[in-house]
Amino acid sequence: MEKNEQERNEQMGGLAGLGAGVIAGAEIGTVAIPIPVLGTFVGAMVGGVLGSAIGQRVGSAALGGVNAFLDGLSAPRGGGSSGADTNHDAGGKA
Question: Whole-model pTM above 0.70?
Answer without folding.
Answer: no
